[in-house]
Specification:
374 residues, 32% helix, Cathepsin B, Chain A, disulfide bond, 9 helices, 6-stranded mixed sheet, alpha+beta, two-stranded antiparallel ribbon
């Protein structure tokens, strides 16, 4: 831990002056010898993220991939319309194919279960608060997890949804077993990918979930080793619903009921470091969604955008407020903003409205007012 912060600073300093040069060199067929600076940056990357390669040929291949990824991060930085910063991440030595294979959905989505898009009529007229962050209420959002090389974002997002709603409804913190969702899934795909509705249907089929303590995450699946009947259930759901593909309605439901799951295009997250991502449909296709995460809040970014901060005097600098969503990822606390990231709210960035799903854990007879922390 003591080495991480200074290494991050050094990487940022090196990359700032290096990426533009790499972009230029990659445009020609034979760029010639790699500059010493690139090799130094790659060494720092290897130390920070504990990377080693089996032979010199593999090292050279990963260095080339790293250079392309730095150039891509610089391009994203120039294209982004928000406050996002892109650069070196734990995935900077992976190709697009490798990254997608491990962290995106592998199984084709197929037909979504017949759950109608809905939002309760009582939410239709309720005003949306200016900010909402369920992380600010104790015992609602469980700690950030790391899926590592297991393709289980869908299971972790569903588990986070159930945990949050259980805490809101019953005032009791709970962490449920992601491993049970993988071992006992209705499709049997485990770490090979899945979708949030697969996880919810598994919970319904098994009449609940065991605790993460009793049935801990292993990061791999053994065929036909479902242990669902072995442990006591600590949480269960009554059903699940899909919300309307409307960001205003999603915000209303989020503020009055609690966190929900969404599935987005993860293309830009490979290079994401911090800030609010504001992409266009061209840079982040909203129809191609391949990564499930937990939506935990929303707000507005009051910071000046980078282009203004550099070129305009403080007296005349405009303060453009950028509305954003707050999302919990499953790539560890050292990625992004301590495991979280922010997307622009209002233009269906990266397809956030395509599959907004949530479980329901409480009795739907009486409506109990829920207050979302600012």
């Amino acid at each position: 831990m003591t080495r991480t912060a200074p290494l991050s600073c050094l990487l940022a300093l090196f990359v700032a002056g290096l990426a533009q040069g790499i972009r230029g060199s990659l445009r020609v067929q034979d760029p010639g010898p790699r500059p010493l600076e690139l090799k130094e940056v790659f060494k720092l990357f290897q130390v920070q993220f504990n990377r080693s390669y089996s032979n010199p040929a593999e090292h050279a291949r990963r260095l080339d991939i790293f250079a392309h990824n730095l150039a891509r991060a610089q391009q994203l930085q120039e294209e982004d319309l928000g406050t996002a910063e892109f650069g070196v991440t734990p995935f900077s030595d992976l190709t697009e194919e490798e990254f997608g294979r491990v962290y995106g959905h592998q199984r084709a989505a197929g037909k979504v279960p017949s759950v109608g898009r809905k939002v309760g009529s009582e939410e239709q007229g309720e005003p949306v608060p200016p900010t909402c962050d369920w992380r600010n209420m104790a015992n609602i959002i469980s700690p950030i997890q790391d899926q590592k090389h297991c393709n289980c974002c869908w299971a972790m997002a569903a588990a986070g949804n159930i945990e949050a709603l259980w805490g809101i409804t019953y005032k009791t913190p709970v962490e449920v077993s992601v491993q049970e969702l993988l071992d006992c899934g209705r499709c049997g795909d485990g770490c090979q990918g899945g979708f949030v509705w697969d996880a919810f249907i598994t919970v319904l089929n098994n009449s609940g979930l065991a605790s993460a303590k009793d049935y801990p995450f292993q990061g791999h699946v053994k065929t036909h080793r479902c242990q669902a009947k072995k442990y006591k259930k600590v949480a269960w759901i009554q059903d699940f619903i899909m919300l309307q593909d409307n960001e205003q309605r999603i915000a209303q439901y989020l503020a009055t009921h609690g966190p929900i799951t969404v599935t987005i295009n993860m293309k830009l997250l490979k290079h994401y470091q911090k800030g609010v991502i504001k992409a266009t449909p061209t840079t982040c296709n909203p129809q191609h969604v391949d990564h499930s995460v937990l939506l935990v809040g929303f707000g507005r970014d009051k910071q000046e955008e980078g282009i203004w901060a550099e070129t305009v005097s403080p007296q005349s600098r405009p303060r453009r407020s950028i509305p954003y969503w707050i999302l919990k990822n499953s790539w560890g606390a050292h990625w992004g903003e301590k495991g979280y990231f922010r997307l622009h709210r209002g233009n269906n960035t990266c397809g956030i409205t395509k599959y907004p799903l949530t479980a329901r854990v409480g009795q739907p007879v009486r409506k109990r007012q829920v207050s979302c922390p600012p």
